[in-house]
Each structure stands twice: as C-alpha cells, then as structure tokens.
Design goal:
The complex is a heterodimer of chains A (475) and B (299). Chain A has helices spanning 11-28, 74-87, 101-111, 128-133, 141-145, 189-195, 203-215, 230-244, 247-253, 263-279, 289-297, 310-313, 360-370, 373-383, 400-412, 423-426, 428-442, 448-464, and strands at residues 62-67, 93-98, 117-120, 168-169, 172-173, 176-188, 219-221, 301-307, 324-327, 343-352, 417-418. Chain A is an alpha/beta fold. Chain A has two domains: 62-180 and 347-409, D-Maltodextrin-Binding Protein, domain 2, CATH 3.40.190; 183-344 and 418-464, 3-Layer(aba) Sandwich (D-Maltodextrin-Binding Protein, domain 2), CATH 3.40.190.10. Chain B has 299 residues and is an all-alpha fold. Chain B has one domain (60-290): MetI-like fold, CATH 1.10.3720.10. In chain B, helix 3 (61-94) packs antiparallel against helix 10, helix 4 packs across helix 7 and helix 5 runs parallel beside helix 11. Chain B is globular, with a radius of gyration of 24 Å. The two termini of chain B are 28 Å apart. The chains are: A alpha/beta (475), B mainly alpha (299). The interface between A and B is large, with 55 and 54 residues.
Chain lengths: 475, 299
C-alpha cells in the first residue's frame, strides 16, 4: 500500500514543466477570443420596400435564442417564429432555448459567431452595458422608426410611453423591453375582502394593517431574501422616489455623488427597516421566491413585494379562491412629492440584436413582428403578460392580477409613474451589493444610515473603476 | 530499452499528452495571460494592462474575506473529516481486535452513499435540512422539543459552519473506505502481537494503526485541502445571495464565477484564478513537506 504522490519533483522536472507552459502560451493565447477580424454586420440583404423596411434577404437563415424561464418559449415557437416563416417562407429558423443566456452566448460573442435575436433575461443575463461598449449591439433606432406591420407612421408611437427610453444604453436605444410590468405590494383580494382588510395608503395605515394580519396568525410581510432581495430594494427605491421624486432614482443611475446618502433614500430605508424589524420573520432571509410565493398562495403570507409577472408565474399553484391584486406602496409622509397612487410601471424583459449577427435585418424584422398587434396580442394570450404595445390586449379577458395592475396604472396616470432603475443592468456590482445590503437592513443588522453609507461607498468605487463603462440618462 | 522502443512509447503517449496540453495546460496558460488583461469577455482584443488586476486584488476586501474562509476551511475540513473517517474506519476494521464491529460491511456501504450523490443533489438535500422555518428538517426536530427555528444559513456567524458541516458529511464516506482499505493491508501479525502485549484499543489506534496508515492520511490531507479551496457548488446552492449573508460564506471560486459571468470582468476573474492556483499549489507542496516521514515497507 503506497500512496503515489510525487514526493520530490526534481529541478529538471520543474524546468521542463515551465518550458512546456511557455511554449504553449503563444499559440493557444488566441483560443478564447476567436478570430479578431469582425465579419460584416449585416450579411445578405434584400430590397428595401415599405413591407420590408430593413431589407431582409428572403432566404437568409434566422437564429433566435429565447430565455426559457417563467414565460416558456412557446410564444416564440408557436407564434413569432411561424409569423416570420409566413413572411419569408424560404428562411430556415433555428430556435435555441436556454436558461443560461450568458454562459451560452458569452463565448459566441467573443468568437464572433452570434445569433440574430436574443431574449436577454433571467438571472444569468448578459451585461448590455459591456456588450454595447464592445460594439456588440445593434442600435434599434431603425426599428422604432420603421412603420408597424400593417400600419403607417412610426413603430415607436404604437408603444407605451417610456418603452424606448428604458432600453437606452449610452444614450441610444439598444434594448427592446417587451413586457409591461407594474410593481407593488401583492395580496389575495379575496382574503382581504373576507377579513375586511384595506390596502394601506400611509405608513401608519401599513403599520396598523400588518398588525391586524399578524394578529390573524399570518406572516404579515415577506420577501425572498435568499435569491430575490431585489424585490425588496425595489420597494425602498420606490419609496425614495415617492418622497422626493424620480430625480432621486436618476441620480442613483447616474452615479451622482451623494445619491445614496440623499435624505429621501435614508428616510425610505429607515421606514422599511422599521417594517422589517416589526413584521418580517428572520426565516425569510433563507427562503427562495418559490417558497415564499407558495406560502402566500397557501394563505400564510399577507403582503408580498413583486412585479406583475407574479400571477402568471404562480398560476399552477394558485388555488381557485386566490385572486391576486396589487397595491401601491404607502406614502412615507404627508410631504411626499408624488401621490400615494403613483406606482413603478415599466417595460421589462429585454430583447437584443447582436451587431455582428449574420442576419441582422432579419433580427430587426423579428422584433417588428413581436411588436405587431397580432404578435403582441398572441403573446398576451400565450403567456398572460401584457406587452408594451398600446391597446394590443384590448378586449382580451384579463386575469385578476393583470386587471388590478392595469387599474393601478390608470389611477397613477402619466405623472404618477415612478421610473425604472437602469443601474440594475448597467452596474451589476452595485446591484449585487444592494441585494446584500438590503438583506442586512431588512433583517436588522444595519441601520438606514449605514445602509446609505455602504451603498454610497460601493457607488463611489464603481464610479472610480475605469474597467466599468459608464452610462448616463437624462430622464 | 529494445531498439525502436522509444519510438513505440512516444507514439502511444503523443495523443494523451497533446490532449492534456490542449485542454489542461492550455487553459491554465491562457488564464495566466488573461489575468494581465482587461478582457470583458465579449471582444476579441483584450488590452494588456500588466499587473493592475493583481494590485486591485490585494486591495479587494471581498477577496480577503474569501481567502479567510479558505484558511478556516483548510484547517477544519481535513481535521474534522479525517478524525471522523479514521474513527469509523477503525471501528469497521479493528473495532474488535483484527475484526470490525458487527455489521461493519453494511455500515461501510452506507457511509459511502453521500459520495455517490452529485454535489448539486447534496446541496438541494441540505436546503431542505437547513430550511430556516418550521418546514426544515432540523428546525422541525428542534420545534418538536420546543426550540425556536435557527437560521442555519441566515445567521452570519453560523452560515459558514453549516456549509462546512455539509462538506464534511459528504467527504467522510470516501475516506472511511480509503482508510479501511489501508487498514486491511496492515499485517495481522503486528496487530496480534500488540494485542498479546496487552495493548488497549486506543493504544492500538495511536501506536499501530495511525503510524502504519500515515501515507494514506497524508494523501487524504492533501485531497481534502484541495477540496477546501473549492466549495463553489455547495455555497452557490445553499447560501443566501450566493455567498451571503454579508459575504459570510463566500469562497474564491464563487467570486471568480461572479466576477466573470455577472460583472463581465474576465481579466480580473482570471487574476483571482491565478491567486487560487498559487494558493492550492502552495498548500499541496507545504503539506507534503511538513508531513513527510520515513516510509515503512512490510515486505
């Protein structure tokens, strides 16, 4: 019995090893990066006509990469891809479903062999700031200026306000955010009706409401700290915007000095920390969104911060008696700049066309198909989610949650829309830190003031880091 | 060597060596090169920036937190695993003189079960064990005797220990089998002689078994030490916010993964990889040096 490990590599062995390493560095060093010559960005093109505004070559193959998450990929294989095929019967479509966008596509971007359309979503989505900085994204201005399918004028005018702006990178549109999402506190409308509970409009009312829910034996408030702390930081950011207006969130996105230590952010953080201390069970830091959402469906959780995809995500677990509804976050004080009813409503789920796509015009056309009335309406039918296409779902029977979200948005009006946060995609390091600090704040390990100071420190570090491409937004 | 022997050997070795160079040495060399660049992963022209990444790394508090966790792991994981595995292996093989305790073959198979499970499966399994509310297996048991649920993975000062416990649980089985094999090759005469001289069971273990098993223990220590520089899968599956709470469980492979795939800083991530490479190598060399002893040949 002797364990064979080399006890004593001789000096010659070591030198020989080093020599091999040195020899292999040069020829191999090019491997991970592929060829450095960039192929032409557009590939074969056809004639530009009003029906074919991007000049798609009728027989050019199209590769579509779809994030197969909560939405599935049937909306692509069963709707948008057949629509493309109908328009260009000679085009071969390659459909690639994946749950790991970055792992699947990063080597392909590096190697120059990219698909034509990408649904850039999920936990492992690609950093669009980095992609754009590296010249890997196709600008979508042409898409938004093209006429809608079967219509005239410009496509951008058929979309909900803010859609194009939400996809700006470096001041230009590079991302098509396709799904309309409303964010707020979700609850079971039936349960609330049965118990006589009302959504809270002020902090005091929220305190009283959560107290009543707790007295009824439920967990009054919960968010999944283990993998979705961002559900909670959205609420903190929304509250900060209610206190002092959207400028607070713009400053955060623009990495403005002192953006995180602004009084509104501190006030919002402190208000939520107080809720956390009083009503948030420590076990929720270790639970996932699936676990917490199931608990809510079982009638064990009162209010849950989330976006409007929640209802669809839970549709298999939700009992028939459970009716999702959303309430705006409560006003923090009487001097709030934005009214109680204002909500964060934004376009989400980004779609991109790689700049070096072999069939980039086809990619643009695919997005135009998605944005057509038929494409958008079908998407809502297949996935239960509303799109950014104005009125595309009119007349469709809406689920209780979607109806509630649409009502909340109507109540908020155009002036009551709280803006989305772009730093979440622009600066992933800041976002990662925010998840960690949000848990520390909500589960009582740090104060609101420490929260602001820690976030400001990270924002300053990101700002000073030359390796991070900087972005800017005006509105 | 007969004539033509060298050519014969080389022709057989060429392919494996080439594959090894291409898929093992190649990526290593490439990582070393990348660590000196600012590569973002999506372009084909990384810029050479010298040792900037390493200068950053030295000032990076998260990096040092992770290294601290490895330092703890490198001490606790081998010690705990070896102690438990040696104890079990001794009971199984020499629990009653030259024989193991009753049913030892059955136990040996059972101890090996965790080794058969994929790490991800173990992670998901322990998610249920450690679940922080009454639904968790551990907390359910505690609840039945009136103890409030414990946040095994949510309390910053407990989380890393909970992860280490899983690593030990998973590793023990393999080393029980390894040591059992080692013990069965210890000559019976020595054991019987020691018994005749009235050696106690503890004396037998420390004076006969352990010295004769030293080679195996040494190898086990190196293996476990290298495992202590990993921990990626378990931490990624089990911990809050992947490495949390408050970075309390983060490990270098996880930081490398996050820096590359989430932050798109492939150059910086490669620098972390190089640091990890140096750390594991230094550990292996050091362990082999420190624990070197005279080898005993039975023959």
């Amino acid at each position: 019995m002797s364990a064979a490990l080399p006890q004593k590599p001789t000096r010659r062995d070591v030198l020989r090893g080093l020599g091999i390493v040195a020899l292999t560095v040069t020829p191999l060093s090019a491997c991970a990066f592929g060829s450095s010559d960039s192929p032409s960005s557009s590939g074969p093109t056809g004639a530009v006509t009003p029906e074919n505004p991007f000049g798609v070559a009728a027989d050019a193959p199209l590769e579509v990469v779809i994030f197969k998450g909560g939405l599935g990929d049937e909306y692509a294989t069963g709707l948008h891809e057949p629509m493309y095929k109908k328009e260009f019967p000679n085009a071969a479509i390659k459909h690639v479903p994946t749950q790991q966008i970055a792992q699947t596509l990063q080597p392909r971007f590096a190697g120059g062999d990219v698909p034509d359309v990408v649904a850039n979503s999920g936990t492992d989505l690609m950093d669009t700031g980095v992609l754009q900085d590296a010249g890997q994204l196709l600008e979508l201005t042409k898409l938004f200026d093209a006429p809608p399918i079967g219509g005239s004028g410009k496509l951008r005018d058929t979309l909900l306000p803010g859609t194009v702006e939400s996809g700006l990178v470096g001041g230009k549109p590079y991302v098509l955010n396709y799904i309309f999402t409303a964010y707020g506190l979700w609850y079971d409308a039936e349960l609330f009706k049965a118990k006589g509970w009302q959504p809270a409009t002020t902090l005091e009312e929220l305190d009283a409401l959560l107290g009543k829910i707790k007295a009824a034996g439920l967990q009054p408030y919960a968010y999944p700290g283990k993998n979705a702390a961002y559900y909670q930081y959205w609420m903190i950011l929304i509250s900060a915007a209610k206190i002092a207006g959207n400028q607070v969130l713009l400053d955060i996105d623009n990495l403005k000095d002192g953006a995180w230590t602004a009084p509104a952010v501190k006030q919002a953080a402190e208000a939520w920390a107080a809720i956390g201390k009083k009503y948030l069970d420590p076990s929720f830091e270790g639970l996932t969104h699936t676990e917490v959402q199931t608990a809510q469906n079982q009638g064990r959780v009162g209010l849950y911060p989330c976006g409007s995809w929640l209802e669809n995500e839970q549709k298999d677990q939700t009992p028939a008696t459970f009716k999702y509804a959303v309430a705006a976050t409560p006003s923090i004080s009487a001097s709030d700049k934005l009214p109680y009813g204002s909500i964060r409503a934004a376009a989400g789920e980004g779609y991109i066309v790689p700049a070096k796509a072999k069939n980039a015009p086809g990619g643009l056309e695919y997005l135009r198909i998605m944005l057509s009335r038929e494409g958008a309406r079908g998407f809502t039918e297949k996935t239960g989610n509303l799109t950014v296409v104005k009125g595309a779902a009119d007349g469709l029977p809406l689920s209780p949650g979607n109806k509630s979200a649409a009502e909340a948005q109507a109540k908020a009006g155009d002036s009551g829309i709280i803006t989305y946060s772009l730093f979440e995609n622009w600066y992933k390091e800041l976002e990662t830190e925010l998840r960690s600090q949000t848990n520390a704040l909500m589960f009582g390990r740090i104060t609101g003031e420490q929260f602001c100071a820690n976030m400001q420190r990270k924002a300053d570090a990101v700002k000073a880091d030359p390796a991070v491409p900087k972005q800017n937004r005006a509105s | 060597m007969p004539r033509g022997g060298a050519r014969f050997v080389i022709s057989f070795l060429a392919l494996p060596v080439l594959i090894y160079l291409l898929f093992v040495i190649g990526p290593y060399a490439q990582a070393f090169y990348l660590s000196l660049t600012d590569w973002h992963g999506v372009t084909s022209n990384p810029q050479f920036i010298g040792t900037d990444n390493f200068v950053r790394l030295v000032k990076d508090p998260t990096f040092w937190t992770a290294v601290g966790h490895h330092a703890l792991l490198v001490l606790v994981l081998p010690l705990a695993t070896l102690a438990i595995a040696l104890f079990f292996a001794f009971l199984l093989n020499m629990g009653s003189g030259t024989k193991g305790v009753w049913g030892s073959r059955f136990y040996q198979a059972v101890f090996f079960f965790p080794q058969v499970l994929a790490v991800a499966v173990v992670g998901v399994l322990f998610q249920a064990v450690y679940r922080p509310d009454q639904g968790g297996i551990l907390n359910g048991l505690l609840g039945s005797v009136g103890i409030a649920p414990i946040g095994w993975l949510t309390q910053p000062n407990l989380a890393l220990w909970s992860v280490i416990a899983v690593m030990v649980w998973q590793a023990v089985g393999f080393y029980v089998v390894l040591f059992a094999a080692g013990m069965s090759s210890i000559p019976k005469e020595i054991v019987e002689a020691a018994e005749l001289d009235g050696c106690s069971r503890a004396g037998m273990f420390f004076r006969v078994t352990l010295p004769l098993l030293w080679d195996t223990v040494q190898v086990a220590w190196v293996y476990l030490g290298i495992a202590a520089f990993d921990g990626f899968a378990l931490v990624a599956v089990l911990s809050v916010n992947r490495g949390g709470p408050d970075n309390a469980t983060t490990v270098l492979p996880l930081e490398i993964w996050r820096t590359a795939f989430t932050f798109s800083k492939y150059g910086y991530a490669s620098a972390m990889g190089v640091a990890l490479f140096v750390l594991s190598l230094a550990f292996a060399v050091l362990t082999l040096r420190v624990t070197r002893r005279e080898r005993i040949d039975y023959a």
